Amino acid sequence: MTAPVTTRSSADLIRAEEPVVAHNYHPLPVVVARAEGTWVEDVEGRRYLDLLAGYSALNFGHRHPALIEAAHRQLDRLTLTSRAFHNDRLAEFAERLAALTGLDMVLPMNTGAEAVESGIKVARKWAYEVKGVPADQATIVVAAENFHGRTTTIVSFSTDETARQGFGPFTPGFRIVPYNDLAALEAAVDETTAAVLLEPIQGEAGVVIPDDGYLAGVRELTRRKGCLFVADEIQSGLGRTGRTLAVQHEGVVPDVLLLGKALGGGIVPVSAVVARRDVLGVLRPGEHGSTFGGNPLSAAVGTAVVEILETGEFQRRAAELGVVLRGGLSALLGKGVVGFRARGLWAGVDIDPEVGTGREISQRLLREGVLVKDTHGSTIRLAPPLTITSEELEGALGALARVLT
Ligand SMILES: Cc1ncc(COP(=O)(O)O)c(C=O)c1O
């Protein structure tokens, strides 16, 4: 790995952040300076196995050579044009992303929350122009315990009080139903409903996987009731669960797909709304946009990401290593683990509160050289880069076993 760019210690850098960086996160006490593949290194040269992978933005590992090469090549040619002009990278990115997902059209954006906001605008516009919902009456049905981002409209339909408290007034037009409950969804959808917006697996909630048949049921219900199914695959998508998309486990094609995180290869923020032409086609010039969305650097990296996914290699790895992950976690049941949910290389692990909080377990794992992040008090989330080897995964599970005893 390359030489350090700072001579300051981890402790010094952590102290230095305190007065000048907003306290909107509570990071674990590690200062990462370099990374390669599944491993990161702190400023003192200590190495850690990364089992968070940038909340799944690093599905293909840190600095995947093909992605770094695509970025370097593009950096040397053209980085930004704005959409005031065409650029020579956007068409291929959109063509290949649409083909990969089985949909028609792409609206390129940057962050996940922006893709969600854009999806909401598109669904509302579709409801007024195509479905014929009276002006300003459109509703969107969402699930309790959702996580779709942090903007004011998105936290308007969050059920997490920490995300909402102090940020009102909120955007109207959302109905919240319990997740994994088709009857509740059926009751909430009416003639004003533009869309049902769901995570096919709820990531931040603790990798909550709905019952078999739920996503297919949502697909059938939304089709029958004449509203859109908007699937937020910003965290679940792009190989993580052993398929390109989590909805594919039930053979479902949504009307609108929201992608982000890994679409930027861990290099640049890239997100997208991908949809059928009759849905995304409602947008006309001036109605929506972004200075950076669809820029040539993002499009080049995004195209390289799609190229990797076209091979199916990482989807296969996630499915195969997912078996190792499940096996390792099953062996810990009753030994500090009270339950877990896993699909592909993604797991939410509920820790016995007697053994420690999720935060405490994350801190103990840090000392063992493994990076994870807690969510919701007693749960830790495991989402290694899909480049992880079975030996590395077994090593991490061994470390988890040690810190639980
Ligand atoms: C399902 C889902 N949607 C949206 C987002 C928001 O993405 P971003 O943080 O890039 O705005 C996240 C982030 O964790 C997510 O998990």
Would you write up a description of this structure?
By secondary structure, the chain is α/β, with parallel strands linked by helices. The protein is built from 14 helices and 15 strands. It has helices spanning 10-17, 53-56, 65-75, 90-101, 112-131, 152-156, 161-164, 182-188, 214-225, 277-280, 296-311, 313-332, 358-367, 390-403; strands at residues 32-36, 39-42, 47-50, 105-109, 139-143, 174-177, 193-198, 228-232, 256-259, 271-275, 337-342, 347-351, 370-371, 373-375, 379-382. The strands form 3 sheets. A 7-stranded mixed β-sheet has the order 4-10-9-8-7-5-6, sandwiched between helices. Helix 3 (65-75) packs antiparallel against helix 11, helix 4 runs parallel beside helix 11 and helix 12 (313-332) packs parallel to helix 14. The longest helix has 20 residues, at 112-131. The two termini are 34 Å apart. The model has no long low-confidence stretch (mean pLDDT 97).
Give a quick rundown of the structure.
By secondary structure, the chain is of the alpha/beta class. It has helices at 10-17, 53-56, 65-75, 90-101, 112-131, 152-156, 161-164, 182-188, 214-225, 277-280, 296-311, 313-332, 358-367, 390-403, and strands at 32-36, 39-42, 47-50, 105-109, 139-143, 174-177, 193-198, 228-232, 256-259, 271-275, 337-342, 347-351, 370-371, 373-375, 379-382.
Overall body shape: globular
Mean pLDDT: 97
Bound molecule kinds, no repeats: pyridoxal-5'-phosphate
Assembly classification: single chain
Q: What value does the Rg take, in angstroms?
A: 21 Å
Provide the succession of SSEs. Answer: HEEEHHHEHEHHEHEHEEEHHHEEHEEEH
The number of distinct helices, counting runs of at least 4 residues, comes to: 14
